[in-house]
Amino acid sequence: MQFAGFASEDFDLFAIPDFAGRMAEIRARLRPKLLALGEDLTPQIGTAIGSPMFLHVAQHLRRRVNPPVETWAAFAREKRGYKRWTHYRVAVSGAGVRVTVFVEDDADDKAPLGASFEAGADELLAKLAPANGLQWYTLGDPYVSQSDLTPDRLREAGGSLQRLKTVKFQAGITMPRREVLRKTPEQFERWAVKQVRLLKPLYCAGAG
After folding, report:
1. What is the pLDDT of residue 61?
2. Which of 20, 42, 70, 201 is most buried, most CB within 10 Å of its CB?
3. What is the CB-side half-sphere exposure of residue 11 using CA atoms within 13 A?
4. CB-CB contact of 200 with 48 (8 Å)
């Protein structure tokens, strides 16, 4: 195991107001931890999904002014990149850590994901029923809870994903920072892999 766990300072750095200061702390503090965590999780996620997965840690190279509100390790089926594909993210913010399934607004998988929502909303929601605390960020502000999501609302979202170029998709499960800080590295990794398994039907809806 390479990952040594998160500390309060890892979450506090998101309160740094200026771009340069926050980015410097992200690169110095969080990127090495996400690389270590990702190295530990990649084979476990591949086993959970049933196919090889590749680690990518966010670099935020396109940002120049607004500092990121979170940073992440991404796990995707392609070695050369992750943004074109349905992928998992283990994302850290000031509030805690969340494991999500993410599809960018210009991803190749976005239309197939939307079509899956339209064609199989009832079945998908049934498969996701064990995912307690699942939050659908794309469907509401700040999110729609799994317990409040209807098949019709999911089918509607599927149509939007296929029609609208600027819409991205994200849904997942959060662990608040106070709980993260109570976990040993081993406990946190077990939790992360459990969420990956619970979200597998959603990942497969986009990745096929």
Report:
1. 77
2. 201
3. 16
4. yes
